[in-house]
Structure formats: C-alpha cells, structure tokens
C-alpha cells in the first residue's frame, strides 16, 4: 500500500492500491445534483481523476483550478474529475465561486466507493488523500500518483503529459 503522511504524520489508507496497467476499478460517487456518477459514465474517454481532501483548502483549490485551466488544451475526449468527500452542495457552491467549468467535481461522502476502490481513503480523518489517476479510453490505468505528503501539490506536468500521451 502507498505510504502517505498528512501534516507529516503517518495515516492509514483503506482500500486497494491502484497501479499502472491495472483495470480501473468502477466506483459510484455523487454529482453536484446528487445523481450517481460512475467510471462507466465516461467510457471511451480518457479520464484524469484528481483526488483532494477538501476543496476548501489552499492546495486542493489550486489543484482543481490548475486542471480546470489545462482542460482546454486536452481536448473533448478527456473527462476531468475532482473527487473529494465534500458534500455535493458545498462542491457546487465552490465551483460557482471559483469559476470551475471544465472539471466535474464529484462527492465520495456517502459510500467512500471511490476512496476504497482506489486506496485513497484516510481512515483516521474520513478524508481522501491527494492523488492523481489517468485512465485510458479502455479503462486501463495509465498514470498513478499517490502524493506522499497529502498537503503537497501533485506533479501536474507528469499527469498532463500522461493524458496527452494517450490522446
């Protein structure tokens, strides 16, 4: 399992660690209107899945804004998701205030379906650790980054390069 710290203290990740080459696990999260969203909903597209502890923090805010800015250069065959355990109502309000229009924020608060399927659920905090996954159009995992310190930024350039390599 990936080793991760949160504010320099070790945390326990629950679920299955995902590796490059794996079949991407399906999941069910909630859209901002409370409708279910699954991996299969974007079948046939390249998926960039950005995972954050909470949109209401500086690094998570910056991460989501960065991928929103990059979206235009990635094309229409790329779906970008930001997954957190923030409530869908809070995500919708945050997106409106931040002008986020190219990234779909989805909530894993109800079942932790995504968190457990991708091994990003922090048991001690009931939050998701920071991570980035790129899944190809055939549901194979092409890129994985579990950020070793959850309060640090991910490697944006490597994630974007992984998406562009598939396009």
TrEMBL record:
It comes from Lysinibacillus xylanilyticus. This is Thiol peroxidase. PANTHER family: THIOL PEROXIDASE (PTHR43110). It catalyses: a hydroperoxide + [thioredoxin]-dithiol = an alcohol + [thioredoxin]-disulfide + H2O. It holds the Pfam family Redoxin. Homodimer. HAMAP family: Tpx. Residues 18-167 form the Thioredoxin domain. Keywords: Antioxidant, Disulfide bond, Oxidoreductase, Peroxidase, Redox-active center. One of its GO terms (molecular function) is peroxidase activity.
């Amino acid at each position: 399992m990936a080793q991760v710290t949160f504010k320099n203290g070790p945390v326990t990740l629950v679920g299955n660690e995902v590796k490059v080459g794996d079949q991407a696990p399906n999941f069910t999260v909630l859209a901002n209107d409370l409708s279910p969203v699954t991996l299969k909903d974007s079948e046939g597209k390249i998926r960039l899945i950005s995972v954050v502890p909470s949109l209401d923090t500086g690094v998570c805010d910056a991460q989501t804004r960065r991928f929103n800015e990059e979206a235009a250069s990635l094309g229409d065959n790329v779906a970008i998701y930001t997954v957190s355990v923030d409530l869908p109502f809070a995500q919708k309000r945050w997106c409106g205030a931040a002008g986020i229009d190219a990234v779909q924020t989805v909530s894993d608060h109800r079942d932790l379906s995504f968190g457990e399927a991708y091994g990003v659920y922090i048991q001690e905090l009931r939050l998701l650790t920071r991570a980035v996954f790129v899944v190809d159009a055939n549901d194979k995992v092409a890129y994985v980054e579990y950020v070793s310190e959850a309060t640090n930024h991910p490697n944006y350039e490597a994630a974007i390069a992984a998406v562009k390599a598939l396009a």
